[in-house]
Amino acid sequence: MNASAVSENENAGPFEVTHRLVLSIAIPMTLGFLTTPLIGLTDTAVAGRLGSANALAGMAVGAVLFDLLLGSFNFLRASTTGLVAQAFGRGDRREEQAVYWRSLIIALCCGLAIALLSPFLLSAGLFLMAPSPDVAAVTSTYFLIRALAAPMALGNYALLGFVLGRGQGMTGLMLQAIINGVNIVLSIVLGLWWGWGIAGIAWGAVIGETTGMLAGLALVVSRFDRRQRPARTEIFERERLKALFSLNRDIMIRTFVLIGAFAIMTRIGSSMGPLVLAANAVLMNIFLVAGYYLDGLANAAEQLVGRAFGANFRPAFDRAVKLTLVWSFGLGIVTTLLFLVFGTDIIGLLTTTESVRAEAAKYLPWAALTAVTGALAFQMDGVFIGATWSGAMRNMMLAAFVGYLLALALFVPLLGNHGLWLALNLFLAFRGLFLALRMPALAGRQFAGQSRI
């Protein structure tokens, strides 16, 4: 079965889930996600050549603040994927378009609010981060310019959610490549060659997001069937909007809890001294690398599970869960082994400070293990988003967070930073296990009367 043909298939109903179909979504999105760290590396390299430590530090603070802010709105991408995938499975092209326009309008409104409130958001961020006055001045320049990109950045969340919902992984990769590629090139051109400095780096991001959104709009809208165009009353139908807001709310709560868990880890690590904090920051890059391809497989689960729901076809649901689970754990195990073998070399690439290298090496096995303990969590997130079981996903995240806090209270006093990393691995495991235990009952209700494969 040709993967690209499957993604463009306009026929609803039963379909076959194969390894090739899973990978046709997961691999392009993984490659797209892997372009994101290149932006950070490029921006850091450009800022590092401006001859000022304050420039580098100020840009880093501004980037963290903006990324945390945008990350809080990732629910726009997730909810769009789940709802579009279900409409795709039903063969309801009219509702696919309606979901897209609803999500895009919400995204643009949220982005405009961020841009208008950016001075207040900046003040709050500077209060929390408490940088020196010179660093704060650079942060202000960077953040206020980047905030202009918020409507386009959130609009790209809706675009990406739409193409993923239809299983168009290569289109998603192309959009990510456009956004990140333009960003990287213009950061160098504007920041260094034209001498705009930090402002040039920020404008590179703004133009990259804008270019990506315009390209995405042209591509997506040009493919819409005009005969299936939804009326304005359908787009703003009260019950549909209510369902979308409810879904977004639950995913947003889940995202905030996740951000809070990592913030707590950073805070506890900082209390153990700058050496431990620096070592943990280096090791978190290992977890993030594993997260890129696990996210790609989660995207595959979102689309295939959502499509199976729309088609009301349990064999496809069961097969999608099984195959994405196999790939998640398989790649997680391989990654853990690779990090255990080559982890010290990777640490050496990330830092030249010998004391930080030695400290990070102590906790390397815990960081490597996150690829395995996180495999089920990422995959189950994809299943629950595709099924739009947002309430259950929110509740299981809260339960896992309680378990995480208990693990921190128990193991950090006993084991120090080893206990901190143990608690993180338990948190990841709790998330996956709690969702997996909840899934059979929910699937049974959804596919009542249908036999499992």
Automatic annotation (TrEMBL):
Membrane topology summary: Multi-pass membrane protein
Q: List the subcellular locations.
A: Membrane
Q: Which domain of life is it from?
A: Bacteria
> Chief subcellular site?
membrane
Membrane-spanning ranges:
21-41, 53-78, 99-122, 142-165, 177-196, 202-222, 251-269, 275-294, 323-343, 363-384, 396-414, 420-437
UniProt entry keywords in alphabetical sequence: Membrane, Transmembrane, Transmembrane helix
One protein family per Pfam? MatE
State if Transmembrane is listed as a keyword. Answer: yes
* Family note: Belongs to the multi antimicrobial extrusion (MATE) (TC 2.A.66.1) family.
Stated name of the protein: MATE family efflux transporter
